[in-house]
């Protein structure tokens, strides 16, 4: 009986906590996102706000991404952005569905943030989610890709890298010819993985020689990994 009461209380607590979160001014964003300098980064974002006490219907939303008092991106198309952000941001949000996602391209060393979202509802209220800000960890020198090789009748090599730019994923090049395939997948809300595979029939002259995989990120930053082919 005590166990049932405990489970009931826990269920009530979880449901109440979820409901209270949905009725607060709260934005769900990652606190920090790593991004290679020169590449792009998608900042995923969802927001909530207290339900209006009146029955008035909200049918207008204005969204802004800001750093301090500067506007980086906005849902207002004719808004004049500062020179340092002009043509570098895309407002991907669908405010009606409480989505406030933004893309920042050509990441600079100064794009560390913190950035925060602001919602304006002329028929209701406005709010700046300064307590739910996002910082960018700008990576000047990207880490080498992960490289692995299997040698049987065919050489099967895999090279992979994580990144924050799904619209323009990293490009791979190999030091050996063969059949090359690549694919990308979403790992979490702000992280993607792109994998390149190389397959070729081994020759005696290939063994004990390095196989190189080079990855080129959006913006031109490169990193390389190498492995020796062994019999």
Structural summary, described in words:
The chain has 231 residues and is mainly beta. The protein has one helix at 2-22, and strands at residues 26-28, 32-36, 41-43, 46-48, 62-67, 70-74, 89-91, 102-104, 116-120, 126-128, 135-139, 146-151, 155-163, 171-174, 179-186, 192-200, 210-216, 222-228. Strands 6-5-9-10 form a 4-stranded antiparallel beta sheet, with no helix packed on it. It has a 4-stranded antiparallel beta sheet with strand order 12-13-16-15, with no helix packed on it. Strands 3-8-7 form a 3-stranded antiparallel beta sheet, with no helix packed on it. The longest helix has 21 residues, at 2-22. The model is unreliable at 1-21 (pLDDT under 50).
Q: Main beta sheet, described?
A: 4 strands, antiparallel
Q: What is the 3D form? A: elongated
User: Within the largest sheet, what's the order of strands?
Assistant: 6-5-9-10
* Percentage of β-strand residues: 35-45%
Q: How many helices does DSSP assign?
A: 1
Quaternary arrangement of the chains shown?
Answer: single chain
Helix/strand order, N-terminal first: HEEEEEEEEEEEEEEEEEE
**Mean pLDDT over the full residue set:** 88
Radius of gyration: 24 Å
Strand element count: 18
> How far apart lie the N and C ends?
66 Å
> Ranges with pLDDT <50 over ≥5 residues?
1-21
């Amino acid at each position: 009986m005590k166990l049932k009461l405990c489970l009931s209380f826990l269920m009530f607590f979880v449901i109440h906590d979820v409901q209270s979160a949905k009725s607060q001014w709260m934005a769900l964003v990652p606190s920090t996102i790593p991004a290679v300098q020169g590449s792009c980064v998608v900042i995923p974002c969802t927001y909530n706000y207290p339900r209006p006490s009146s029955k008035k219907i909200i049918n207008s939303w204005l969204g802004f991404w800001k750093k301090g008092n500067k506007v980086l991106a906005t849902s207002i198309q004719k808004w004049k952005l500062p020179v340092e952000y002009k043509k570098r941001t895309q407002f991907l949000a669908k405010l009606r569905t409480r989505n406030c996602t933004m893309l920042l391209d050509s990441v600079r060393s100064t794009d560390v943030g913190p950035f925060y979202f602001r919602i304006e509802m002329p028929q209701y209220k406005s709010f700046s989610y300064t307590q739910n800000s996002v910082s960018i960890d700008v990576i000047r020198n990207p880490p080498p890709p992960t490289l692995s090789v299997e040698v049987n009748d065919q050489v099967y090599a895999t090279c992979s890298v994580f990144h924050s730019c799904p619209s323009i994923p990293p490009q791979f090049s190999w030091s050996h010819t063969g059949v090359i395939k690549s694919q990308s997948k979403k790992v979490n809300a702000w992280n993607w993985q792109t994998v390149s595979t190389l397959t070729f029939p081994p020759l005696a002259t290939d063994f004990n020689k390095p196989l190189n995989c080079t990855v080129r990120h959006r913006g031109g930053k490169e990193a390389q990994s190498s492995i020796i082919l062994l019999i």
